[in-house]
Amino acid sequence: MFKVGLCGFGSMGKGHAQLLQKHEGVKLVSIADVRPDCREKAEADYGVKTWECGEAMIAAGGLDVVFICVPTYLHAPLAIQAMTAGCHVFCEKPMAMNTSECADMIAAAKRTGKTLMIGQVLRFWPEYVFLKNAIDSKEYGKLIALSMTRVGGVSTGWDNWYLDESRGGMQIFDRHVHDCDAVLWMLGTPKAVYSYGATRDPRTNGGIFHNFTEYRYSDDFVVSAEGSADTPPGFPFTACYRAVFEKGLIEFNSRLKPTLQVFAGAAPIAPELPDPIAALTSGMNISTAGPYYNEQVYFFDCLRKGVKPEVVTPEAAMETIRVVRTEIESCRARKAITLS
């Protein structure tokens, strides 16, 4: 039986708490959150012991696994404390504030022998897995162009931390990081990035809130991604991509039914995808839990088998942080930046 402690009971924490109930051999035993109303809800919903901070929960002991779902600036210290205390760690994305903190987390995992996995969930999302398989297999020929989009309204979070770059806010870092990670997972690290965007106050109003990034690989194909946190309240969160191949086109749009279509003949086809396992009521800007459950299943399966995660390694998650940080640098320098 894996005894799990959860740091953070906001929208992501609530989602993970719901899904942790679905596993055999896994028991959520404690939840930490600075907000009294969140602790009251955690006690009422799950009957667990609650703590005002994650540090105290970890220090109290009795845990096998810690899930970290707090603002990004707290990821590294909590993950390192948990692994040092003998716990395996599942940490939500982004991995940490910068590559130095990521490296410290990786060093702690190696020193303690504990498993560290980062929640880059698109690697478990059926529509993105389908695209990666198509690129790898060359079923539709060589990739010619890929464009990704992830747009929605403003997120604020506890104490408006999503609007504060110094605490890991800014949509380019917290939301667009999904598509950056997907690009690296499917295509590897580009030679350079060129990013431009609209900016507000980085401490109080979200910093780079709308960006477009070009990932430069070669002259053979083009890759770009758009991210935003500026749509009006009535506009639904939207994630989509369009991938053009030599012999076909794959299009995903989270707002359409079916969400995925392949154009490689006289008429489009909708590939059969795994059914989502549950609806979430956590306040997350998605409606289904399948990919989040899948990454949990994979994490616990790795723990049971005594193997390290390969779908998303800590080193891969650190590389995503390096590239996103370079995108931010590119936005502010208004020029393309080479990735060594």
Give a brief outline of the structure.
With 340 residues, the protein is of the alpha/beta class.
The largest sheet is: 8 strands, mixed
What would you call the shape? globular
For the largest beta sheet, what order do the strands appear in spatially?
Answer: 13-12-11-7-10-9-8-14
Fraction of helical residues: 25-40%
The ordered string of helix (H) and strand (E) elements is: EHEHEHEHEHEHEHHEEEEEEHHE
CATH architecture of the largest domain, please? Answer: 2-Layer Sandwich
Looking at CATH, which topology of the largest domain would you report?
Dihydrodipicolinate Reductase, domain 2
Distance linking N and C termini: 44 Å
Structural class determined from secondary elements = alpha/beta
Beta-strand portion reads 25-35%
Number of helices: 10
Mean pLDDT reading? 95
Tally of distinct domains: 2
What is the alpha-carbon Rg in Å?
Answer: 20 Å
Q: List unreliable stretches of 5+ residues.
A: 278-287
- Total strands: the figure is 14
CATH homologous superfamily designation of the largest domain = Dihydrodipicolinate Reductase, domain 2
The CATH class label of the largest domain is Alpha Beta
Please describe what this structure looks like.
This protein has 2 domains: about 1-120, NAD(P)-binding Rossmann-like Domain (Rossmann fold, 3-Layer(aba) Sandwich), CATH 3.40.50; about 120-275 and about 315-340, 2-Layer Sandwich (Dihydrodipicolinate Reductase, domain 2), CATH 3.30.360. Helix content is about 35%, strand content about 25%. It is built from 10 helices and 14 strands. The protein has helices at about 10-20, 35-45, 55-60, 75-85, 100-110, 125-135, 170-175, 175-185, 290-305, 315-335; strands at about 1-5, 25-30, 50, 65-70, 90, 115-120, 145-150, 190-200, 210-220, 220-230, 240-245, 250-255, 260-265, 335-340. The longest helix has 20 residues, at about 315-335. The relative contact order is 0.16.
